[in-house]
Write a structure and sequence with these properties.
The protein is mainly alpha-helical. It is built from six helices and two strands; from the N terminus they run E-E-H-H-H-H-H-H. It has helices at residues 37-40, 46-49, 56-76, 81-104, 111-127, 135-138; strands spanning 10-13, 16-19. It has a two-stranded antiparallel ribbon. Strand 1 and strand 2 (16-19) form a beta hairpin. Helix 3 packs antiparallel against helix 4. The protein starts with 9 loop residues before the first strand and ends in a 6-residue tail after the last helix.
């Protein structure tokens, strides 16, 4: 097996999916799923998977955004809400970029999707001890 790192956005190395994502603070590779049992076992974006309007292959990318957010929270351990919001805003911007893929697949991030995504952002914040986070502020950088 080739031991050199692969520079694809998603790659399979040593039995684990690696993700590379551009942008501030998003350059590190994510090699393992979240370790917190509340988030590791959570069915992210469940309402979107259950609705045929949203293509699974695009929803999968949204799920990965949320998993990377969990990894970043576990890795960086934000000390306060301001630090948490920096992380959630970066993840929200990734969802902004995903909107074009939904459009290309004949779908969009509309009312139902907005609610499902927002609920999962709040779930993540709450699971990591930020139950007092403002749900709107978590996704304040959204364009959807």
């Amino acid at each position: 097996m080739n031991s050199r790192p692969v520079t694809l956005r998603h790659s399979f190395v040593g039995g684990m999916v690696q993700h590379r994502h551009p942008g501030p603070g998003r350059g590190q590779e994510i090699r393992v799923p979240p370790t917190d049992p509340r988030t590791a076992g959570h069915a992210f974006l469940k309402g979107m998977y259950e609705d045929g309007y949203y293509p699974d292959h695009v929803v999968d990318k949204g799920r990965q955004i949320l998993l990377r957010l969990c990894e970043r929270i576990e890795d960086e351990r934000p000390a306060d809400l301001a630090a948490l919001y920096v992380l959630t805003h970066a993840a929200t911007e990734e969802f902004n970029e995903l909107e074009a893929e939904f459009d290309a697949a004949g779908s969009e991030i509309e009312t139902v999707a907005r609610e499902v995504i927002a609920e999962d952002f709040w779930f993540v914040a709450s699971a990591y001890g930020f139950a007092d986070a403002d749900a709107e502020e978590l996704i304040a950088t959204r364009e959807w």
